[in-house]
Amino acid sequence: MKRIIGIVILCMVIGTGLGISLSRADDLPSGVIAVDGGEGTSCADGSPYQFFSREGQGDALLIYFEGGGACWDGSTCNPRAGTYKKAPDDLLRLYGGGIFASRPENPFQGYDIVLVSYCTGDVHMGDAVQEYTYQGKTFTIAHRGYANAQRALAWAFEKYPSPSRIFITGSSAGSYGAIFHASTILEHYQGVPAAHLGDSGVGVIGDGWEGLSRWGVYDILRTHWKEFKNLTEADFGINQLYTVTAKRFPEVTFSQYTTKGDRVQAFFYELMGGTDWTTHMEAQLQELNDGLPNFRYFVTGGDLHTVLNLPQFYTYQSEGIPLRDWVEALSKGAPVKSLHCTNCTVPELVN
């Protein structure tokens, strides 16, 4: 029963984009464009991929990796699963709140935005086509998140060649995309002030979980990262990705946000075979905080999953510091400290 309830929650949280057709120009908000991914890109079911951009009034750049679940076996990848998104969402429906809202207190008001859409079930990291079987039926999933993201970034580099400042972020599955592709972005824009924030994607992985292998992530790491040339799969985790990236770019602050009881992260961890997500989440964040001088975290109470595209971006706080203010300082290169809720059963709200 718990598993069924969890799947219902996942459908409510990430399923709003299932089955959405490609966006027409007249469907999009003013100033937003949809860009076709082109050759070598696709969604999980082989349908065309597209991403979005909105030109701002200044010259700062926000690169946002969209969320939308994940899948790695017959149970999670079957077309009825509801655990991953099969088509990109459009900005008109989902991205009018949080850091995308038109309001004066938005720290990213006026930024140029590239939204790296997501529809591949591989947290923007995969490069593999897999066949899965569920209830006697076999189906093919194109885990092309890496190619899709790289195409969107190549377009961004051409469209916005000289931003004054960069903010790299993403929510849920997009949180992993943001750290996975941060090196590509920072290497291209060398010398440009930048900061990073992962929203609700700490990366607690169950023992023996084979998702990264099935997505082809280890091959990408061995090929494109000198630090992972001799990568041992059994010892790899998201913290290693943060550690390597943070050491590559010591002038950049890398960070994570989460609620202490994030119900969706905990649910996916259970699907991977893990238990007690909160304890492992706390340990991973503390490991990064203790080991990296340029890493920070923001933990608040409650169990909400993702915040950057929601009204709670303006109402949540931790240790008396509003999340909105903390993110603005982070984005401007000002010093921020790691924050953790005291009474974590409910979110701490701005007075």
Describe the structure in your own words:
With 351 residues, this protein is α/β, with parallel strands linked by helices. The chain contains twelve helices and 14 strands. Strand 5 and strand 6 form a beta hairpin. The chain is globular and about 55 Å long. The N and C termini lie far apart (38 Å). 49% of the residues are buried. The N terminus is likely disordered.
Characterize the biggest β-sheet.
Answer: 9 strands, mixed
User: Termini distance?
Assistant: 38 Å
CATH architecture descriptor name: 3-Layer(aba) Sandwich
How many structural domains in the coordinates? 1
Mean pLDDT metric:
90
Low-confidence runs: 1-25
Question: What structural class is derived from the secondary structure elements?
Answer: alpha/beta
Find the count of extended strands (DSSP E, 2+ residues): 14
The helix tally amounts to: 12
| Strand line-up of the largest beta sheet | 1-2-4-3-7-8-9-10-13
The top level CATH class name: Alpha Beta
Oligomeric form of this entry? single chain
Q: Please provide the ordered H/E string of secondary-structure elements.
A: HEEEHHEEEHEHHEHHHEHHEEEHEE
Helix content: 25-40%
Determine the strand fraction and express it as a percent band.
15-25%
